[in-house]
Structures are given as structure tokens and as C-alpha cells.
Fold this sequence. Notes:
about 45% helix, 20 helices
Amino acid sequence: MEADLAAGRNCVWLVPDEFVADGIAEELHRTVLSRWPEHVHLPEPATTAETHPPVPETGWSRAVAGDVPVLDDFEDGFDIGWDGSPARSATFPVPSGGPSELMTRLAKELSTVPEAVVDQLTAPDAHWHPVIGVRAWTEPDPRQAPGGRATERGHGIARLIRALGAAIKESGLAPDRRPRVLVTGRLRDFPSWFPDELELELGTTGVHWWWGTIGRLDSVTLLAGLGEERGGPRSTGAGGAVLRARVLRAVREEVVSELCGPDISLAVRLFACWDGSDRTLDDSLRACLLVQHKEPLSDLPTVSSGAGVQHKPPSVLRKAWARGILQTWEGRARLHPVVWHTDGGAGRPDRLSVLVSQAQARVLMPWVEETRRRLAELALSHAKRPPRELVELYVRRKLPDHATRPERTFVSAEAGDLQRACLQGHIRLPQEERLLLSSLVKVRNVLSHRGVLRDTELADLCDKLAAADLRWTAEG
């Protein structure tokens, strides 16, 4: 958005409905607007509009009173084969009541009259080139006003953008000398055709959707910071205790991040109330969802697999997006937990189990792999058969040079291969290492089949990893 504004383009920022109710839209809008020293923060509409004396019509003042001029009877001397073609109609209906209420407020901020706003902002000798901030959700709905004209909501915003665009094009202002409009709002704050039509004008306006804006890194980083603020484990104290606490904390953060996806508010709430235990997860998530007061759509369309890679929500899914129950997360379209948490079936929803399993795997599998490799290296010194024979008997995925460098292939053996060699007596690992190996095999099997580690299984793995780290550190 900063790049668009710096290049002289307007910006329209579309956010879900709940962002307005929660105050997030206001905060985001002011954050972007405040980064520009030259800006105008358009105030909310007043109950009564201030009147201004008329001024002579000059230049683009016609675009303020009505809209961009439509040259119905223009004749340029060229014959393009049109014979008796009907006159074009304006893109926007020309109102009969003069300047819009939005233009009147903007004129007051600029200490001028509505009819002179566009001329003043686009004058070639102007020394002020502001970003005009408009919060679309504060604009009145003309259909609800007494005696209001039959125009769509946001029509005044569309007129302002069109009028400025036409005047800039006529005057040939350089990008760094153009006034720009920053509009933040919900989809229902604009005419239905407005966002898609603006995207056709890449040179004048950038349309930005709150779609895929939040990623996994944002969520995990936020939760990690919250953990530190609440006295999370630091790299001090006994090594085994630190490792165990770090793994458990990472699993908790990743589970919350995976379940909540791009809903940062839900992630913060769940992280605060959930103790990290799998047996309390369902109730904690349910309680957090009740606070949000979200309701799934009864007629939710099918979400295609490719919907999440687009730069905006597909038109058939925009109602769900506006309601805050559909977002894109790491390139994949994600339904909000309120949609699938209560699926009408008995027991835990399958979607919840899959997401928890994915989160556990993302944290634990690197630890499992590192420990497996260390056990494979240790097994070579406790082997009762030559490495070449062990490779032929137990390793199913052999490296190309396994015949000449069997030790290298053996170190790549899977945890299950190592366990089979131990059960056959061809490797005699110490008891602690054999128990650790058995735990690795179990964890890999559970997570590879979309299973969820129970609290006792997760705690057992962390205890064994911590004990092994202490042993191996002492052995050098």
C-alpha cells in the first residue's frame, strides 16, 4: 500500500466486517495514514451539512457537481464507422442535488468550497499533495436517509476517486505531485461493482483485500512474544528441564497457530486460556468461539482448492469472507473453526484432529529426526554384524553407494529399521536408548497416520529427549 501511495495511486483497502466492530479497521487505517506527513483525515459525517456559496465553474468543478463529464456529442472529425450510435450514459448517475456530502466535508477540511476541491488539489502549482483518508464505514447510506437519492452506498467515494483521476489525467501531474485517496472499508460500504472495476485501472488505483495478509510466521511470532511476557521458559537452569519445557511450549504455540489460522484475536484468546493439554483443548476452543459470536453461513459454497492462491476472494465466497469465516492461510483457503468445530457428529471433529496432528508433527519431527540419526550413529558401535550385512538385512531405502560406504547408508536407516535390528539381536543398544528408539517409532507412526499424541505420550517423548540430551552431553 505504501508503494502504491508513493507512486501516486489511490488505495482501497477492503477488510472483513468484524474489523470495524472490533476497532481493528480504525487502527489499521490510521496507522497507514499517519505515515504520510501530508494527509487529511476526513471526519465522520455531521448531522447537518454546512452550506457554501456557489463559485464559478472552472476546469474540473463539473466533476464535483456531477461526475466526470461524458462527452455525448463530441465530434473529433474521425469517422470510425458508427452511424447513428446512441448517446452514452454516464458511469455514475448524475445527482441533481449538487456536491456530495463527502465533498462538502472535504472542502471544509481544505478551507475551500466543494466546487473548488478538485481544482485546488490538482493545480499544477499546488505545494501540498495530501493523502486523503476516508473511512468508508462511517459514510452514510443514502438509501436510509430521509428523502435520500436512489444511489448505492459508497457512491460519494467512487465519485471522488473518479473526479480526482480524471483531473490528474487532464493536468498531467507527475506521480509525486498527485493527491491520493486512501479508503478503508467493508465490502458492503461500496457499490457492488466498485472493487472489481477499480482493479481494471492499475495505473490510478490499487485495491487491497485483507486476504492472506496474516501468515504462520506472524501468528507464531506473536504467540512466542506472549509466552515470554507471561514468564515462559528461558535458556537457563538444568538442560533437561529447559529442553522439555521448550518442546512443550513450542507444541502449544504451534497447535494454537494451526487451529486459529489467520484469526489473530482467536489465537491470542485461546493461547491465554488453554493450558496445553490435549484433554482440555476442545472445551477451551469452544469457549473462545462462543465469545466471538460468529455464526457459519447456512449456504456456504464449496471452497475450491485453488481459491487461496488468488490475490482476492472469489466472488462466490466474498459473503463468507466478509463474515470472517473464510480466509487464505499459507496459500490455502481456510474455514474458520466456528464452521467445523461443531459438525453434528459424536466425539472430536476430524478437522480438529488433523490440524493438531499437523501442528505436533511440525514441531516434533525435527527432534525425532535428529534423535534418530544420533541413535543410528550410536548403533554402529553396538552392532553385532558388519555394517554391510546390516544394510542388506534391514535398510529398505539404500543410498547409491551403499556397497562401498555401508556406514553412510546405515546412518540413514529409518527408526523402524533400527528397531527391527535391535529386536533380532544384531544391535545391542543400552536399555535407555532402546526405550528412546521405541518412543520415536511410536511417535512417527501416530503422526504419519494423522493421529494425535495424547498428553502422556507427548510428556514421555519429551522426558526421553531431555534425558538423552543430558546423557549425550555428558559423554561428549
